[in-house]
């Protein structure tokens, strides 16, 4: 064994304790450190060369603390309001650490404990979101992979209706495909490209006036003009304004049209936890496939999402993997037969920990506190003459812009000026350059809202 590696093994408990102290110090400083630090005045133009002889874990910890940690954002903290980024609850962090400790690749029944843990966790999540036992689920890396997996199953369903198998014969066997949606997330077009259906198969359907929700009557007409079966991508929470399609009205169109219903509920599914907002997700259970991103509002570390479907048989037909060292498909396929990945870490453990630690009520409280925070920020910005809201605060995202001359350059300058106190991201809504603040972090309080609002007001005055 390499001498440095052997020395680290002998000191492993001490090194883990040093790592724990480093992590605890970083988390304790979240409130005081810049949300997004400014880049160094003279950024390095070349990476450091790989050392020929390593100096051990303790030296690596020191080098990381000196060179990289100061440049990392406080994205785990309460005022990082970009990209619908959650943090990691204490239990989720513990689960994620133990995921690395046990280092499982539980995709096969030959070593099945991890699969059983994932299935239990998926059952808890299915109940949390109001889905029925007809839905099975698997963990994937994020919403993009969840949407891709759901649409891959939809592609196979189209083939079933047309008497072909895209998984065997290729997507060309389907002929032209139409995927209808009102305000799809950008990952939908990306998934269609990956799946060989093509970005041009995505057909925009008019939305309701002043909304991002699809017009059911317009969708009805679009389906009537679609030859053969189609795919409908519904939204349970759009990116800019967290608008929800009427899922029950869309599902009712099946009485007249044949289509696969995929619902992108990346973070909107969590509205089901709040009694005051659960009506927004009514009809989610009618979906043939569902995307939910867990590293958003469940507050587990990044690289965690779940996909649900009613047709696991088609899912296994798409993703089955034939190798002598893998088990057969069977009635309950191993996870290796259900996603594009032959290998994945035990992502479910962090989710299992936070669900087990805080339960439905603990996560309901996080959701409702974030909703209240978004509404408070919306009210504060609306009261400031320099800002205007572009949409009502429906859930956890505030979509706003400058009241006068909201050019991309001025908005970028505002973001730059405020970045050490609060991080928001640019967007365009109804043709207007805008900003969006997304609340999904378990740490965020009303004090953080006041601090963020003041920073945005100050930055806006500085860009006038």
From TrEMBL:
What's the cofactor?
pyridoxal 5'-phosphate
Q: Which residues form a coiled coil?
A: none
Key word Endoplasmic reticulum present = no
Q: What positions are modified (N6-(pyridoxal phosphate)lysine)?
A: 296
Q: Which InterPro entries match?
A: Aromatic_deC (IPR010977), PyrdxlP-dep_de-COase (IPR002129), PyrdxlP-dep_Trfase (IPR015424), PyrdxlP-dep_Trfase_major (IPR015421), PyrdxlP-dep_Trfase_small (IPR015422)
Name a GO molecular-function annotation: pyridoxal phosphate binding
Q: Specify one Pfam family.
A: Pyridoxal_deC
Q: Where is this region: Disordered?
A: 30-57
Give the UniProt family note. Belongs to the group II decarboxylase family.
Report what the protein is called.
Amino acid decarboxylase
Q: Which organism is it from?
A: Streptomyces roseus
What phylogenetic lineage does the species belong to?
Bacteria, Bacillati, Actinomycetota, Actinomycetes, Kitasatosporales
